[in-house]
Specification:
Chain A: InterPro entries: CO_DH_flav_C, CO_DH_flav_C_dom_sf, Diverse_Substr_Oxidored, FAD-bd_PCMH, FAD-bd_PCMH-like_sf, FAD-bd_PCMH_sub1, FAD-bd_PCMH_sub2, Mopterin_DH_FAD-bd. The complex is a heterotrimer. Chain A is an alpha+beta fold. Chain A is built from 13 helices and twelve strands. Classes of the chains: A alpha+beta, B alpha+beta, C alpha+beta.
Chain lengths: ~325, ~200, ~750
């Protein structure tokens, strides 16, 4: 690691006003410390925001508000999350390991960087790490890379499982800017696609902090599934993951949510497939059709064509599992 | 061979200028200048830390970069917590902070001051092994023993968290601790044994 | 050692391994965990190209880092005498002449070593090292390179190589296995300490302290006795510790350079680059069977990768020559040099790769023949004689392993045709395969020190890499002497103890058990000699006449002519009794062939929509001769099976051909099995002694647990899905596209 100094702001105001260019906030540290060890992140100073940010979960009839500092494992074990937003708990438990979930913060999960091996190896080209150096994965080892929403500048995928559930549940990200003003960013517009500037992962304003994540109340707690396909049974990033949730009236689908991880630079919603499912019977044939619709919009790279087949199978299976949940 | 020394004063006098200059130069030109000018090397930041480890108070001088794992192993000679990857990918460094299992390799020591930390060295009470340590010996839950302290710290937490309802659940909640010897049979059996008590 | 001395005094430890308390309390010291006064840290920086020469190395930035003591490069180093010139380098057979060449053979090759006061300083400074190179074209694409490399005969041709072509049933197919990496949990590390100008102490992770000692005695041109190597606790090896690697020499050079003890711990990515791996391989197997299911001919060809600076031959086709009775056999091999570091033996070397191809071929033939894979194997096993040497097997119970395994997994429930058993989207299948391994034995020495109270310490330089060697030695010494286990201490992993070979190839226990038995006999003889001064009965006693107990010596039966140790020690004015003895293989090797074997059975569930494979049940039955310690032996086998699961389903080191880079060379990028990947593995043993191999009757178990394991799993996947997959690992994508 490059040497750095350390400060600990007492509150959000101090945290916002005290950060200079070239400095970084640290919460759980599970991603940042790793990146610093790899000389990918080299901040001059760290601002420890573990006490400045809220570690509380508040519930109301309108939804739930999860403080930026709530550890991932605490979300997953929270009674209200388990009963009202079980898809989120399930997605979190599919990610990382119990130790990492005990450390990782809500905000940090949103802000974690890609695990693309070209990003992680500083001797290889990567536009996200070093703009202008090229995308090593585009024509290289891209088995794990994106199949949708990528650009020639970057084919990396977002590694989070939690965010896939948050995307499916139409969450929003509450941020505080340097003026102390709070704003709410819809989850769908929080993470970015790479375009020509893959070095920018998301639309968090400069010098702003995530203070909370909010999920509106919903009725997806009965029929939901999170399915993650990976190279080993646990403690591995997704090849493809699917968050699926249905609202049913009898056997008829009144609302559907479908999102995926491991396929794009951001958690990916399959809006067209969702639209197709709305009003349809919850049958294998319709699930299969929805999966095909999602797959149609993908464009795999040289080594990840399998992801399209896998995605279809995973969507079908996840939707099927919703009925047994 | 020529003895080389580097004076601190030297780089203090040149560093601030170099930093300003380098920041403004585009990458390709920077590479050229690198051969000519010395890069700005920030001074390390060493502070006095106060840590509570295994119910004992430690006051140490530590670099901000020092992880809890390196502090334990290199400065305090508490080498029970192991380094298997140093990047949060293996679980060998698992310790408890505030009673929860975490990875000490991704924890900066300065960030866990005055929080109760328990390492494998603090698990036994006096001359009495912790039941999980006993179970690991009895069930032969290890071979080379290198991942074992991390496995045991994780196993103790796994029981406390209540993730022991089935073999599958134990296996899933112990999957953050790699064992290359593959002693998973004995690890699961040890946890079942302790959970059944 | 310190198996005992370092562990905290506890009063409630259950019975287990001799080093159990040390391991569960974290008090056992692995190489990097020793502390030497005034110690500093070394970190290596690697090349950023895969092939070429170094033009210049820039260390200026790194030297500015406070705390940096020195930086070693090929132009600034303490010269290692054994690497003084090109001829000496070649003669040293050390492999990579680290910091003694400007040639770059692979990406990540160490080009500089930063020595600093703290690990943080050294790590940061190493990141500031850069170099300019003259780059030449790198070759890292095995798939592209291998076809052009001619094959060479591996062993004598038996009968006709083409006999398989005339058979009514034939299988002809190619098999590939990706580059796999040992990745023991403990990263290789060395603490080097020059205690004098020609006196060196090393705390090092390896599988053979005497090998390390000899290597550096040669390279530094100093007497072996001047080098002491400690490897008391070794955090796994799997073959990666059988060689002495460049970092170990680098640490010694660094300690010389700064004249202080230096600690060098590899990073996990460096582990992938600098401590060997199982080479990537291609195989072609052509095999024929007659209508009755007798194998008539086998042509087995294999190529695998090696480095451009050394040739390593894994011996992939060896297994084809030992398992089945086939009168026509031809085996051919070749190594393919690439700009990668040198591969090395990895658990079940050669045979593990070979068995995958051959056991899948046998499975394929079984479906063609419509014969049960179990029955087909039983019919063809070379169970009485080694087909290669023609010698009778000393003992060989692979047939019993197969029969027992089939019973344990309920093989009769298996449906004969593939793709017949479904549970929703899950396809269920059964598979089996066999593994064999030559049961070797080396020469070793062991010593015993007895105290006045009858407590003994058994000592040998051999390491215990987690196999339970120390516990096995205690068991054998207890059986041989009758002294209670709690009065038997073990010292090992130190080069100043009685010499022993490296621990590898499943020979550890087989080798050391003879030495321990011999030294127990020597102890009896020596005590009898002292006893003879008090009681004539003991004159000219043979070891077999002597019965020892916790408290004293007896003649032929316990209590007969009993003399207490305290009395013996007093009368003979002794403080301790010391004996040492050696033992090794003998004429039995001319008479017999020796092998261990195993049969693997599994039931898998394959999710046909996502490609997920779940191993539902796994049974392995092994013949390792006498089982000295059932718990440790079962652990050894189930652990090897976990390795086999990894090999079958996930282990794969990717490379990028354009940059000569390993891709994702860390424990997140390279997957091996986590706890959830393995079912609770069922292990059983034949447990019949091999009376010819050594006094303990134990044949060694380290390798057979993994050999054939991947084939059993892949055969089960075929049975479940009808998809014959011939490229390891079988990741979900291959299932879906297969």
């Amino acid at each position: 690691m490059k040497p750095f100094t350390l400060r600990k702001p007492n509150d959000i105001k101090q945290a916002l006003s005290g950060k200079k260019a070239g400095e970084a906030y640290i919460a759980g540290g599970t991603n940042l410390v790793d990146l610093m060890k790899k000389h990918i992140a080299e901040p001059d100073a760290l601002l420890d925001v573990t006490t400045a940010l809220s570690a509380g979960i508040e519930t109301s009839s309108r939804g739930i508000r999860i403080g930026a500092m709530v550890r991932n494992s605490h979300i997953a074990s929270h009674a209200a999350i388990q009963s009202q937003y079980p898809l989120l708990a399930k997605a979190i438990l599919a990610g990382a390991s119990p130790q990492i979930r005990n450390m990782a913060s809500t905000a940090g999960n949103l802000l974690q960087r890609t695990r693309c091996p070209y990003f992680y190896d500083i001797t290889l080209p990567c536009n996200k790490r070093k703009p202008g150096s090229g995308c090593g994965a585009l024509e290289g080892e891209n088995r794990m890379s994106a199949i949708v929403g990528y650009s020639e500048h970057c084919v990396a995928v977002h590694p989070s499982d939690m965010c896939v559930a948050l995307a499916a549940l139409d969450a929003s990200v509450v941020v505080s800017g340097s003026g102390g003003k709070s704003e709410s960013i819809p989850f769908a517009s929080f993470h970015r696609l790479p375009g020509t500037t893959p070095e920018i992962d998301n639309n968090l304003p400069v010098n702003a902090l995530i203070t909370a994540v909010e999920i509106p109340a919903n009725a997806f707690h009965k029929h939901y599934a999170y399915l993650k396909v990976r190279d080993r049974t646990s403690y591995a990033f997704a090849l493809v993951s699917v968050a699926a949730a249905l609202q049913l009236s009898g056997t008829k689908i009144t609302a559907a949510r479908l999102a995926s991880g491991g396929v794009a630079h951001k958690p990916w919603r399959w809006h067209e497939a969702e639209k197709f499912l709305q009003g349809k019977e919850a049958t294998a044939a319709n699930f299969s059709q929805a999966a095909a619709i999602a797959a149609r919009s993908t464009k795999p790279l040289s080594h990840n064509g399998y992801k399209v087949t896998m995605l279809q199978g995973a969507i079908e299976t996840a939707l099927h599992n919703c009925l047994n949940a | 061979m020529e003895k080389q020394t580097y004076s601190r004063r030297f780089f203090l006098s040149t560093s601030s200028m170099a930093a300003a200059a380098v920041a403004l130069i585009p990458g390709n030109v920077k590479a050229f200048y690198k051969n000519v000018k010395k890069r700005f090397i920030p001074a390390k930041s060493v502070n006095t830390l106060s840590l509570t480890i295994n119910q004992k108070q430690y006051t140490v001088q530590a670099d901000t970069r020092t992880t809890l794992l390196d502090l334990l192993r290199e400065q305090l000679q508490l080498t029970g917590s192991k380094k298997g990857c140093d990047h949060g990918q293996c679980g060998a460094c698992t310790v408890h902070v505030n009673g929860e299992r975490v990875l000490s390799c991704l924890t900066l020591a300065a960030l866990v001051q005055n929080q109760p930390i328990t390492t494998i060295e603090g698990l036994a009470e006096g001359d009495q092994l912790h039941p999980m340590q006993q179970a690991f010996i009895e069930c032969d839950g290890f071979q080379c023993g290198y991942c074992t302290p991390g496995q045991i710290m994780s196993a103790v937490a796994c029981v406390k968290e209540g993730h022991t309802h089935s073999v599958e659940e134990i296996k899933e909640f112990m999957s953050g601790n790699l064992c290359r010897c593959g002693a998973y049979n004995g690890i699961v059996e040890s946890i079942q044994k302790v959970a059944a008590r | 050692m310190r198996f005992f001395e370092n562990q905290p005094a506890v009063t409630n430890a259950p019975e287990g391994r001799v080093e159990g308390v040390a391991k569960v309390t974290g008090s056992g010291k692995y190489a990097a965990e020793y502390h030497a006064g005034n110690m500093c840290y070394a970190v290596m920086a690697g090349s950023t190209i895969a092939s070429g020469t170094i033009k210049s190395i820039h260390t200026t930035d790194a030297r500015q880092v406070a705390g940096v003591l020195d930086i070693i490069t090929h132009t600034r180093k303490p010269l290692v005498p054994g690497m003084a010139d090109a001829a000496k380098i070649k003669e040293s057979r050390f492999g990579l002449p680290v910091f003694h060449t400007d040639n770059i053979y692979f990406k990540g090759q160490p080009i500089a070593l930063v020595i600093a006061e703290t690990l943080e300083d050294a790590t940061y400074a190493a990141s500031l090292i850069s170099a300019e190179y003259t780059t030449t074209e790198a070759k890292v694409d095995f798939d592209k390179a291998h076809a052009a490399v001619p094959l060479n005969a591996a062993g004598k041709e038996r009968g006709s190589a083409d006999a398989w072509r005339d058979a009514p049933y034939q299988s002809e197919a190619e098999y590939t296995i990706e580059h796999e990496v040992h990745n023991p949990m403990e990263m290789h590390a060395t603490i080097a300490h020059w205690e004098g100008p020609d006196k060196l102490k090393l705390y090092d992770k390896n599988q053979g302290v005497n090998n390390v000692q000899r290597t550096f005695a040669r390279l530094w041109n100093i007497p072996a006795d001047n080098i002491e190597v400690f490897s008391e606790f070794v955090g796994g090896g799997f073959g990666s510790g059988l060689r002495v690697w460049p970092h170990c020499l680098a640490a010694i050079m660094a300690a010389k350079q700064v004249n202080r003890p230096v600690k060098l711990v590899l990073t996990r990515p460096q582990m992938f680059l600098l401590t060997g791996y199982r080479p990537k391989s291609w195989q072609k197997v052509r095999m024929g069977a007659d209508a009755g299911g007798r194998f008539t001919g086998l042509l087995h060809q294999a190529r695998h990768s090696t480095s451009v600076y050394e040739s390593f031959n894994d011996g992939i086709t060896r297994i084809s020559r030992m398992v089945y009775n086939i009168s026509n056999v031809k085996t051919e091999q070749a190594t393919v040099p690439l700009n990668m570091s040198t591969p090395t033996w990895m658990r079940g070397p050669g045979d593990c790769s070979g068995a995958f191809a051959v056991e899948c071929t046998v499975d394929e033939l079984s479906y063609q023949l419509k014969q049960d894979p179990v029955a087909l194997r039983l019919k063809n096993l070379a169970i009485t004689h080694d087909p290669e040497s023609g010698k009778p097997w000393s003992t060989h119970y692979l047939n019993e392993c197969i029969e027992k395994g089939a019973a344990l997994i309920n093989w009769q429930q298996r449906k004969p045709l593939p793709g017949q058993d479904k549970e929703g989207d899950w396809a269920i299948g059964y598979g089996m395969a066999t593994g064999m391994w030559n049961a070797g034995r080396g020469n070793a020495s062991a010593g015993i020190t007895m105290q006045r109270d009858g407590a003994i310490t058994v000592k040998t330089a051999m390491t215990d890499i987690g196999t339970g060697t120390g516990t096995g030695i205690q068991n054998i010494a207890h059986e041989q002497t009758g002294i209670a286990k709690n009065k038997i201490k073990i010292e090992l992993g130190n080069s100043h103890l009685p010499p022993a070979p490296s621990q590898g190839g499943s020979t550890g226990l087989s080798t050391i058990s003879g030495a321990v038995a011999a030294t127990c006999n020597a102890l009896k003889q020596k005590l009898a000699g002292y006893a003879a001064a008090q009681d004539d009965t003991y004159k000219n006693a043979q070891a077999a006449d002597i019965v020892l107990s916790d408290t004293g010596i007896s003649w032929q039966t316990a209590g007969n002519h009993f003399i207490a140790y305290t009395s013996l020690f007093e009368k003979n004015n002794l403080t301790t009794v010391e004996v040492e003895a050696s033992s090794g293989p003998g004429a039995e090797r001319q008479q017999y062939a020796f092998c261990s074997s195993a049969a693997h059975f599994c039931r898998v569930k394959v999710h046909t929509k996502t490609g997920k494979v779940k191993i539902d049940k796994m049974v392995t039955v092994a013949d390792g001769g006498s089982i000295v310690n059932e718990k440790a032996a079962a652990n050894q086998i189930s652990g090897a099976v976990v390795g086999g699961i990894g090999m079958a389903l996930m282990e794969e080191q990717a490379t990028d051909q354009r940059y000569g880079s390993l891709i994702g060379n860390d424990l997140a990028g390279y997957h091996f099995a986590v706890n959830a990947d393995a079912p609770v593995i069922e292990v059983a043993f034949i447990n019949k002694p091999d009376k010819n191999i050594n006094p303990s009757g134990a044949k060694g178990l380290g390798e057979v647990g993994i050999i054939g394991c991947a084939a059993a799993i892949v055969n089960a996947i075929y049975h479940a899905t009808g998809k014959r997959l011939r490229s390891l690992p079988v990741t979900p994508d291959k299932i879906l596209l297969g």
